[in-house]
Amino acid sequence: MAEKRRVLSGMRPTGKLHLGNYLGALDNWVRLQDEYRCFFFIADWHALTTGYAESREIPENLMEMAADWLGAGLDPERATLFIQSKVPEHAELHVLFSMLTPIAWLERVPTFKEMVEQLGIESPSYGLLGYPVLQAADILVYKANYVPVGVDQVPHIELTREIARRFNHVYGPVFPEPEAKLTEIPKVPGTDGRKMSKSYNNAIYLSDSAEVITAKVKPMMTDPARKRRSDPGNPEVCPVFDLHKIFTPSDDREWCATGCRSAGIGCLDCKDVLLKHLIPALSKIRERREQYIQRPGELQDILEDGSAKARRVAGETMAQVREAMGLR
Q1: Rounded distance between C-alpha atoms, residue 209 and residue 199, angstroms
Q2: Which of 12, 27, 226, 235 is positioned for an S-S bond with 257, CB 3.0–4.6 A?
């Protein structure tokens, strides 16, 4: 039987995940693990590129994120779940790749300039400039065929392909050239109408209880032009209706849209329908994640076992790399 093609992706450990993280990546990962040999890692080294001063927060954030992964449906029997820093082969390959990657390749990556401007970084670190090289090592050490990403990350995958191409040209064929597996990210608004983000304090978390979710959704921003109950509204400009498109079945969704346009229902009526579908969907995730939070030893064992499996695969690749480079 032919081996399944490989998928790799990772997340920085920023703590508990919210609905935007789930719909933008995690839900897709859960589906991919049935079709591919999947490697999903917690990118604790990548977290240091902009958050090196907060490194002490990483261990707790790491466990919260792992609990969210398992609560959402990632299965350690069907996917390899691991911690980046537990596999030192990532760092070794990063060093070797950094020797053959031109600085000009890194300076043209658009997200580097964006991060420097958005975060107001006056003196960017070597790690921030070079993190796409570490990302290439993350991908290629597992010889991944596909990397699920949003369109903004495509330049990083193209850089990874260029690094693989250069290595293969200089030392002989070792690495496949991975392809971006584009993930269609739905519009997930926060409770204030902006993009859902932890930094905006407008997020619905996978760990939130039904009561907390209700308290966040009830005052949620709607169509700004609908100031009174008797005013007709436009569902297409309403952040609540964006969530209806994701969670609410078509019949209930159409009832809400028709009632909004005719002023037949109020915004609270519309939100009640959303909560009827949103809360059960998230409750299943919260209940599963809570089981792991209550059993931290089991959670840690899963990550240790996954990291050991990942290291065996990465070790095989690095043996080939050293052989190709004459570094035995």
Answers
A1: 20
A2: 235
Percent pLDDT > 70 in the chain is 100
306: left (phi over 0), alpha (psi -120 to 50) or beta: alpha
192-227 core/surface letters (b: 16 or more CB in 10 A; e: else): ebeebebeeebbbbbbbeeeebeebbeebbbbeebe
Indicate the number of domains in the chain.
2
What are the strands of the beta sheet with 79-83, ordered from one edge? Answer: 79-83, 37-42, 6-11, 146-149, 179-182
The tokens 């597996």 sit on which residue?
181
Q: Note the pTM of the prediction, 2 decimals.
A: 0.94
pLDDT of residue 117: 83
Which range of residues forms the domain containing residue 246? 208-288
> What does the alpha-carbon distance between residue 259 and residue 297 come to, in Å, rounded to a whole number?
50
Which one, of 47, 86, 89, 77, lies nearest residue 65 by Cα? Answer: 47
CATH of residue 317's domain is: 3.40.50.620
Cβ atoms 259, 265 nearer than 8 A: yes
